[in-house]
Design brief:
This protein is α+β, with helices and mostly antiparallel strands. The chain has one domain. Helices cover about 50% and strands about 15% of the residues. The protein is built from five helices and four strands. It has a two-stranded antiparallel sheet. β1 and β2 form a beta hairpin. It is elongated.
């Protein structure tokens, strides 16, 4: 009898540890997915701005020698524009659904609403308001905690921002380097 109780307690502890591990992995999947979706949405929004539009930044004070420290930067990648984009980017998490990889059971997040009214294949995506709410919350948390890094990367980097920001800089995606670049 005592051995059965001990076995039952051991099984309970093991099940609890496994469920905690699964919950932690799901939390990591949602944070990683939110980061990668955030990067996709920021890149798309930046691409919609005319690259020829410039904005003057720097000090408008006149130096003792009569010059000013003003420089022109592309509007799309200016700090002011990036801050504006970061204020609205998490609203776009409503356009994402969840996809579960059948071999690894890892979750990824895919766009379910087309930006150009094209028909999209949604056969492998799960549409769930709880997932959308979790993605939005994770996105808002990432923007709040990593605002400086996001601005730094989008102001200066153009290549492979997803991996650089989400994996290497913020460690939100430990498994992202194994994911294809077009997958979230």
């Amino acid at each position: 009898m005592r051995e059965a109780a001990l076995l039952l307690a051991s099984c309970t502890v093991l099940c609890l540890l496994l469920s905690l591990g699964e919950a932690a992995r799901q939390g990591q999947d949602i944070r990683c997915g939110a980061c990668r979706a955030l990067v996709d949405e920021m890149e798309w929004a930046i691409s919609q701005i005319d690259p020829k539009k410039m904005i003057q930044t720097g000090s408008f004070r006149i130096n003792p020698d009569g010059s000013q420290s003003i420089r022109e930067v592309p509007l799309a990648r200016s700090e002011g524009n990036l801050l504006e984009l970061m204020e609205i980017v998490c609203e776009r998490m409503e356009d994402y659904g969840e996809h579960t990889d059948s071999s690894t059971n890892r979750k990824s997040y895919v766009r379910i609403k087309s930006r150009s009214d094209e028909t999209m294949d949604l056969s492998e995506a799960t549409l769930d308001s709880r997932v959308t709410a979790s993605l939005k919350f994770a996105c808002e948390t990432i923007v709040e905690q990593h605002e400086d890094e996001i601005i730094e990367f989008f102001a200066h980097e153009t290549d492979n921002v997803k991996d650089k920001l989400c994996s290497k800089r913020t460690d939100l995606c430990d498994h992202a380097l194994k994911m294809p670049h077009d997958e979230l």
